[in-house]
Amino acid sequence: MDTNTTTREHEPLTIHHTSIAEQDLKKDQTTFFGFWIYLMTDLLLFASLFAVYGVLRANTFGGPSGADIFSAPFVLTETLILLTSSFTMGLTMMAARANRKPLVLAALAATGLLGLSFVSLELSEFIKLIAAGHGPQQSAFLSAYFTLVGTHGLHVMIGLAWLLALGISIGVRGLTRPNMRKLLLFSMFWHFLDLVWIFLFTLVYLWGIL
């Protein structure tokens, strides 16, 4: 009789824990599915901007073309910085899976610094072009260029704000399940921005210079 009583006492606890695990799993699945939908809509946004740029790139109206204003060494530097930040983001995920919180925070900080450097270079390029009279209002080509590249830069800045909030949360609460989920989502977002930049580098800068 004591054995049966003990068994009955433990049954609700087991069911309760199973229920919590199932709820966490469903929450993860719903979150990741929703985030994939967001990435697909963002992909459509960039695809539309690329299409517009492709149509308008030759419409300079007597102003400068890509070959006149793009600098291969400058853009290559931006590319290397952003690709390196993708590498440090990979190190962040490896450290997170190993439950090494200090290394996670260090790798996140490196990713943030690289991302900030990239944004700073992009802003300096925009400022230089506008100061030289080559703002988005000069031609359809420059309007499309500023819109496409600026949209990517805005996404990077949003990513940096997200990274800062995530780093603070991990520093305070540690590598909890919610923080691990957020870290994985951020990693997907950051690698997505790197992928978009590769297309930008190829179709906007490299094509423009050549």
Overview in brief:
With 210 residues, the protein is an all-alpha fold. The protein is built from six helices and no strands.
Structural features, described:
By secondary structure, this protein is mainly α. It has a single domain, classed as Cytochrome c oxidase, subunit III, four-helix bundle (Four Helix Bundle (Hemerythrin (Met), subunit A), Up-down Bundle). The chain is 87% helix and 0% strand. The chain contains 6 helices and no strands. The protein has helices spanning 2-56, 66-69, 72-97, 101-131, 140-173, 177-209. Helix 3 (72-97) runs antiparallel to helix 6.
Name the helicity range: over 70%
Report the uncertain regions.
Answer: 1-18
- The helix-strand sequence is HHHHHH
Radius of gyration: 23 Å
- CATH H-level homologous superfamily name: Cytochrome c oxidase, subunit III, four-helix bundle
**Structural class estimated from helices and strands:** mainly alpha
CATH class: Mainly Alpha
| Count of domains | 1
Cα end-to-end separation: 86 Å
How does CATH name the architecture? Up-down Bundle
